[in-house]
């Protein structure tokens, strides 16, 4: 007759034990993020779990250690979170993250609207704002131009062999690249070629220009106008060079004063990570999926040398053209505050541009 009651009590105990473990893990990680030092059972008992005995705390820490969520750097030290521990912690604070709103959204909207004529400048200010708010290395990956629309092409001769291609896009961005040509073209011939490109391709999507229209042009002019055909091919190479995300970084001086950067080797590894922009973009592409934001930790970098670092990022869109922004630093980050900031800044950029509050540049083609 009493068996159902016993089962109910056992379930209640399991729930109670799990709740206590989660509370202790959450408290330990938040204390570690603030103090930057291994956390002892006494600190947890004094600061987080005053109603629980120190023996119970030690027992729960042992369980968390067995689960691979925390570890002791050496026998007499306190505990520190593992990568799995950070992942579990982010799950535990998901409701808090969901209900936290970045308090400077009105300021951010004003910043975007005031600088609507210069999208790169807007992104620069946002990057600086995020760096100031987080004391971490912040980044903005500019939108990929294949989604964008060609507004205008300008080309300038800077030497006998080299030309500067300037592509103005509907999103408000300008992309530049220097191309070394293996043919000679006069200033007058260059003007004619550029005017032709603008008349034929202005208003077209870059992806379509690269994958359809340039090939058609090349076939058309292959025998009729070899010089124009050569120029069209150089334009294709210029777009190819431009058509990658470019990541801009920013940080405060205090960034490298964190205890994690205590050796020259760690600093070198971190700067190597920064330089691998292609890899960073691929990681962000791969991991985000349909999520608003994402945290990349540990083995998700695909390189064990970078497993102690972390990326918090989100996707934004400018006139439906996607890019990324976020922060990079040690795994010991204040995720509870960082994630809402990154998420809401990216969301505000997208919503502001979609509402038409930022105006696209309009060039009059001659």
For the structure shown, list the relevant keywords.
alpha+beta, single chain, elongated, 3-stranded antiparallel beta sheet, 5-stranded antiparallel beta sheet, 10 strands, 366 residues
Element layout with pairings:
Blueprint: H1 3-35, H2 41-47, H3 54-66, E1 70-71, E2 80-81, H4 83-92, H5 94-99, H6 105-114, H7 119-134, E3 137-141, E4 150-157, E5 162-169, E6 174-180, H8 187-201, H9 206-221, H10 226-242, E7 247-250, H11 264-275, H12 277-288, E8 293-297, E9 309-318, E10 321-330, H13 335-354
Structural notes for this entry:
This protein has 366 residues and is of the alpha+beta class. Helices cover 51% and strands 17% of the residues. The protein is built from 13 helices and ten strands. The chain has a five-stranded antiparallel beta sheet, sandwiched between helices. Strand 5 and strand 6 form a beta hairpin. The longest helix has 33 residues. The C terminus is likely disordered.
């Amino acid at each position: 007759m009493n068996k159902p009651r016993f089962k109910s009590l056992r379930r209640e105990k399991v729930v109670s034990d799990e709740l206590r473990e989660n509370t202790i893990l959450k408290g330990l990680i938040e204390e570690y993020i603030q103090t930057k030092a291994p956390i002892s059972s006494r600190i947890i008992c004094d600061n987080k779990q005053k109603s629980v005995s120190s023996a119970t705390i030690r027992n729960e820490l042992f369980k968390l250690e067995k689960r691979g969520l925390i570890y002791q750097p050496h026998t007499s030290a306190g505990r520190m979170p593992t990568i799995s521990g950070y992942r579990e912690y982010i799950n535990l604070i998901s409701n808090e993250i969901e209900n936290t709103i970045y308090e400077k959204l009105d300021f951010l909207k004003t910043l975007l609207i005031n600088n609507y004529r210069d999208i790169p400048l807007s992104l620069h200010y946002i990057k600086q704002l995020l760096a100031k708010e987080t004391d971490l290395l912040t980044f903005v990956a500019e939108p990929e131009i294949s989604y964008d629309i060609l507004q205008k092409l300008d080309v300038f001769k800077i030497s006998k062999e080299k030309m500067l291609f300037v592509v103005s896009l509907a999103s408000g961005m300008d992309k530049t690249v220097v191309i070394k040509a293996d043919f000679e073209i006069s200033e007058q011939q260059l003007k004619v070629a550029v005017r032709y490109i603008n008349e034929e391709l202005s208003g077209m999507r870059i992806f379509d220009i690269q994958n359809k229209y340039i090939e058609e042009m090349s076939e058309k002019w292959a025998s009729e106008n070899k010089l124009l055909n050569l120029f069209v091919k150089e334009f294709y190479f210029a777009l190819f060079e431009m058509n990658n995300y470019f990541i801009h970084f920013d940080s405060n001086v205090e960034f490298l004063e964190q205890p994690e950067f205590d050796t020259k080797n760690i600093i070198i590894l971190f700067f190597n990570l920064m330089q691998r922009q292609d890899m960073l973009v691929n990681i962000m592409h791969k991991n985000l999926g349909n999520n608003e934001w994402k945290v990349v930790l540990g083995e998700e970098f695909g390189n064990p040398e970078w497993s102690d670092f972390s990326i918090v990022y989100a996707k934004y869109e400018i006139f439906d053209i996607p890019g990324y922004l976020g922060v990079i630093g040690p795994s010991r980050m204040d995720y509870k505050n960082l994630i809402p900031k990154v998420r809401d800044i990216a969301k505000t950029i997208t919503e502001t541009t979609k509402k038409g509050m930022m105006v696209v540049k309009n060039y009059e083609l001659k």
